[in-house]
Specification:
The chain is α/β, with parallel strands linked by helices. It is built from 8 helices and 28 strands.
Length: 418
């Protein structure tokens, strides 16, 4: 396992803008997984560890884009229709078994390889069959309805770069050049637990004063969506000694430890003290809302991410901070999820100096484009808001207010939930 630098999370000081914090992390974080080779079907969501160079062109030969008739353009009459004998038939996967001759037409089907030398295809519906001949209309341009060899991919070109996270389209591209296996970064091994005497696992009932643990299930699902290997360590009580033993043991065979709850400075928040028995906790004063009490640190060679206890804050800070940290540790070249400009359909006042994320619902008005409405409640414990919303409106530190008609940045949940 690669080792993180001792000071990779050591920022301290006053409240820090999240963009500055992520930039510093980008400079300091070390990739902690080694490359491995996996089958193509097992590569979804993984990080490519080496450039892929195509060793063949796609398509590998000129082919027809339509069903119709292939001809030599120079054989066509310049001032009217052309009658030609149809002397062959070419279907996809079945190239013509002889050289073609000038003055003939070949029946051809979509995807079929073009006979050598022929470069123009008439669509079937534009032509008139007459016995063994075909009558071709005037006016078609040379090269019409032909897909050229290498039109999509040229042999020797780099089609995918190291550091890319592999989606279905990247896997399809790799398959199109004949690859059965890919070299990817190894999976992060991540241990997850919740803390708190007040939480228990979901069941048919909960004792008085006890709540069901939602955070662990949300966090584990997002980690698995990132192709991490997740170990569920369950719920730990508000006991620093028990927490210290658990996280110290987990750090020995995991790359990352993720907790929720217990990372602020209250008398019953024991996670920070437990982590500091084995390592360090830094970087837990971010100028953000929700989720200011987020902790990053080290436990031995493992990274530590301490998420807030409120369920919305836990999910949002995972999406906008922890996810980026994990992608850095995996070796991803792109850690920032795309934002989209949309029109606000709400009023909002905020403090300057901190970045906020508002849960928002997309709507579309004919002729007015896409707009967003702020979810009615902004409480960090209102988990139903994460179900009702489509994503987050991101308001930078210098924004003081939002009015209807303002352009805001929208971060869809499907970009950051896995």
């Amino acid at each position: 396992m690669a080792q993180l630098k001792d000071d990779c999370f050591a920022f301290g000081g006053e409240l820090m803008p999240v963009t500055d914090a992520l930039a510093l992390l980008r400079e300091r974080i070390t990739i902690v997984v080694d490359p491995e080779t996996v089958e193509l079907r097992s590569a979804l969501g993984r990080i490519l560890s080496a450039d892929i160079i195509a060793d063949r062109s796609v398509p590998p030969h000129d082919n027809s884009a339509v069903d119709g008739y292939a001809v030599f353009f120079e054989d066509l009459n310049a001032d009217g229709g052309t009658r030609m004998p149809v002397t062959g038939r070419v279907a996809a996967g079945h190239p013509l078994d002889r050289p073609v001759r000038r003055g003939e037409a070949v029946r051809i089907f979509t995807g079929a390889p073009m006979p050598d030398g022929m470069e123009t295809v008439f669509m079937e519906e534009d032509c008139e069959a007459d016995g063994n001949d075909v009558i071709l209309p005037a006016g078609l341009k040379q090269g019409a309805n032909r897909r050229k060899k290498g039109e999509d991919i040229e042999k020797g070109s780099v089609i995918l770069k190291a550091g890319q996270r592999l989606r279905p389209q990247e896997l399809g591209l790799a398959a199109s050049v004949g690859l059965q296996e890919l070299k990817v970064m190894g999976m992060l091994r991540v241990a997850v637990f919740s803390t708190g005497d007040e939480v228990c696992d979901p069941s048919d009932q909960a004792p008085e004063g006890i709540i069901f643990d939602a955070n662990r299930y949300s966090v584990m699902s997002m980690l698995e969506g990132m192709s991490c290997h997740v170990t569920d360590l369950g719920i730990l009580p508000d006991d620093e000694e028990i927490i210290a033993v658990a996280i110290g043991g987990a750090a020995k065979d995991h790359h990352v430890i993720v907790t929720s709850g217990g990372v602020s400075a209250g008398e019953e928040d024991h996670v920070k003290g437990a982590v500091e028995r084995h390592g360090s906790v830094d970087f837990w004063r971010l100028a953000i809302k929700p989720g200011r009490p987020i902790a990053l640190g080290r436990i031995g060679d493992a990274a530590f991410i301490g998420l807030p206890g409120n369920p919305v804050a836990a999910m949002v800070t995972f999406m906008v901070i922890a996810r980026s940290v994990l992608l850095m540790l995996m070796g991803a070249s792109e850690i920032a999820a795309p934002r989209y400009a949309v029109t606000a359909d709400f009023d909002y006042q905020k403090k300057t100096g901190r970045r906020e994320w508002l849960r928002a619902i997309l709507s579309e008005t004919v002729g007015a484009g896409v707009s967003v409405k702020k979810f009615c409640s902004s409480g960090a414990g209102i988990l139903t808001s994460m179900v009702a919303a489509d994503g987050l409106v991101e308001l930078p530190e210098d924004i003081e207010s939002v009015a209807p008609g303002d352009v805001v940045q929208f971060l869809p949940f499907n970009e950051v939930s896995g």
